[in-house]
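**User:** Here is a favour to ask of a fellow structure person. Please take any protein you like and set down a full record of it. No explanation is needed for now; the record alone will do.

**Assistant:**
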Amino acid sequence: MFRFDKDLKVYLHRAPVDFRLSINGLAALVQQALGLDPFAACVYVFSNRRRNRVKVPTLTVEQLHWLLEGIDIGVVQRHPNRVYEHAG
């Protein structure tokens, strides 16, 4: 488990990647092309040929932490904000 802080390393795979690759294919790219450990506490970023997409989702930091902890962010919903006039 890791958190995004100033010491987090982010690696960019500069060659275009076929986005149909599974996580296993991307892990093999990290290991073979970058020579790095795919299980290290780092972030690996991949892009497509036209450079108009990346393989990193647009998330808030909180959502990214949930995702890294294994929480399905597609089903998580916040409770509505409540304003109370007095405490009972």
About this structure: The first strand starts at residue 9 and ends at 13. Residues 23-32 form the longest helix (10 residues). The chain has a mean pLDDT of 80.
